[in-house]
Automatic annotation (TrEMBL):
This is Tetratricopeptide repeat protein. It comes from the Bacteria. Keywords: Repeat, TPR repeat. The keyword Nucleotide-binding does not apply. InterPro entries: CellSynth/LPSAsmb/PSIAsmb, TPR-like_helical_dom_sf, TPR_rpt. The keyword Magnesium does not apply. Pfam families: TPR_16 (PF13432). It comes from Sporosarcina gallistercoris.
Length: 532
């Protein structure tokens, strides 16, 4: 049971506006002798701005100013305390606990800090600590203004904790420390997270979740061997530990070790967990490594059974739903994500976050394996085609971010240019060759506009075109007229397959004359293999 506060924002008004040794900012003193003094805002400045916003009941603004005040004056226990109180009012109890503990370490005799430590522990259900701090407040301020609230906490804790076992309390403490480590990892403070987690596993050698989180922290810190060994040790002692298996899959995925990843994924597919926690872990892992059908199955299964979900849950549910063909469910899940975390707007899986444009959803740009086969093909022209399609793909961010899929250092210069173009980088024209490349890319886009969404025949057309593209660049062909180039490629490909295609129709389609089309067809034929 969670203790419910009876304070309702009263607490944020406790500190007077001038408390740094009685010193206030004096504008007249600052401007003495008419000297112009550069004013650099400090913690006092932002603290007073926060108080002003609180008086106006503009609590989001007040929270922002208090956060800045803490950043500038992290050693002032009163500012840290006030920020912790407001964070607690926002319902972010674990974060508030860290702040109030920080304030307590700075000034362990401050009666208000002691009281709010009692309150935050009560909110978190840590009733033993809540009672201890409330009793300590009564010792130092038996007639204090918060004494009645302190008595309520003591009574509440005694009633609710009468049968609380020590091992249950230990589990709660471990959970709290794990949450602290998780927040540290989210902010990139992996060294601090490792310290917290190493302390947990020493005191709780069978806390497998702590070992799993420590392995993640090692991995993010670059200690991949230690991370894997830790998970192997967990699996030796707790065979079938779902979290350890999932973490190993993530490690193999990011390291590009397909040989080890594939059999592990085959094993994960066979697992049928009952607990929501394990289903969530499986679903998120499958979504991260691109097995969206399995991801959607597990994430949707716990949602149907009443799981409310957090921001991470709805992010992965939206991803897996969209990539497995459940567009409506994806949109619903992403709408819920935006409600929880508005900063995720623009990261919808069906939208190119870089260009803020709708991405083509044809079968070949949705087919991740098709793209991977293309960009790993032995022929340069095929890889060029793959990189071009990647720019249109719903899998662009995933494939580009994966360390094993694209090794830029091993690409030919022409491939690098096509890849850069697909990622919305424009080549500055400093030479004739640069101009030729840009015009060839313009022709590529014209062809794509005419044949999107691609069918199988369309992919064959582009395979032919990128062969011409590669050869033309090698032979310093200028690609002077992109419209005519695109029309010529279209005619060359389709005239060999259909008698109904005429130069007149193709020329009109691309806005050029028939003689111009004839000229460029002749020039491009010279670039085809086995033609002199």
């Amino acid at each position: 049971m969670v203790y419910c506060s009876h304070i309702a924002r009263r607490s944020v008004f406790l500190v007077p506006s001038c408390f740094f040794g009685g010193i206030c900012l004096d504008k007249n003193e600052q401007n003495k002798n008419n000297n112009i003094i550069s004013f650099v805002p400090d913690g006092v400045f932002y603290y007073e701005r926060a108080l002003a916003e609180i008086q106006k009941e503009q609590f989001p603004e007040a929270l922002k100013y208090l956060k800045r005040a803490v950043e500038l004056n992290p050693d002032n226990h009163r500012i840290v305390m006030q920020y912790g109180i407001m964070v607690m009012e926002e319902g972010r109890f674990e974060e508030a606990l860290d702040l109030l503990i920080q304030a307590y370490e700075l000034e362990p005799t401050d009666r208000e800090v002691i009281f709010y430590l009692a309150e935050i522990h009560a909110h978190l259900g840590l009733l033993r600590e809540a009672k201890l701090f409330a009793e300590k407040y009564m010792d130092v301020a038996p007639e204090g203004e918060l004494s009645e609230e302190a008595k309520e906490i003591i009574e509440f804790a005694e009633q609710e904790a009468a049968f609380l076992a020590d091992d249950q309390q230990g589990d709660e403490e471990v959970h709290l420390l794990q949450e602290k480590a998780r927040r540290l990892m989210e902010t990139g403070e992996f060294d601090k997270a490792v310290t917290v987690l190493e302390d947990i596993v020493v005191d709780h050698p069978e806390s497998w979740s702590s070992f799993n989180n420590l392995a993640l922290a090692y991995f993010y810190r670059g200690e991949t061997t230690d991370a894997r060994e830790l998970l192997y040790d967990v699996l030796r002692k707790d065979q079938g530990n779902v979290h350890a298996l999932c973490n190993l899959a993530v490690f193999y995925y990011y390291e590009g070790d397909q040989e080890k990843l594939k059999p592990l994924v085959d094993l994960l597919v066979k697992i049928r967990p009952y607990q929501f926690e394990n289903r969530y872990k499986l679903g998120a892992t499958f979504a991260l490594i691109g097995n969206h059908k399995e991801a959607y199955h597990w994430l949707r299964s716990i949602q149907k059974k009443g799981f409310e979900g957090d921001a991470g849950f709805f992010f992965w549910l939206a991803q897996s739903a969209f990539f497995s063909g459940h567009r409506q469910q994806a949109e619903t899940a992403f709408s819920r994500l935006i409600e929880i975390d508005p900063s995720k707007a623009g990261l919808e899986p069906w939208i190119d976050a870089n260009a803020n444009q709708q991405i083509d959803e044809s079968i070949y740009t949705q087919d991740k394996q098709f793209l991977l086969d293309k960009i790993s093909n032995e022929y340069v022209s095929e890889r060029m085609f793959g990189f071009f399609l990647l720019g249109k793909s719903i899998h662009k961010q995933e494939i580009v971010a994966h360390p094993a899929y694209i090794d830029v250092e091993k690409l030919e210069d022409l491939e690098k240019l096509v890849l850069a173009s697909s990622l919305d980088y424009n080549l500055v024209e400093k030479s004739i060759a640069d101009q030729a490349f840009n015009r060839a890319m313009q022709a590529t886009e014209l062809l794509y506009a005419k044949h999107n969404p691609l069918d199988e025949e369309g992919t064959h057309l582009f395979q032919m075109w990128f062969t011409l593209f590669e050869t033309g660049i090698e032979k310093q062909y200028p690609f002077k007229n992109p419209n005519a180039i695109a029309a010529a490629v279209d005619f060359m490909f389709h005239s060999s397959r259909s008698k109904g295609i005429t130069k007149t129709k193709l020329a009109a389609l691309y806005g050029i004359s028939t003689p111009t089309l004839t000229k460029y067809v002749s020039e491009l034929f010279e670039l085809l293999p086995n033609f002199s």
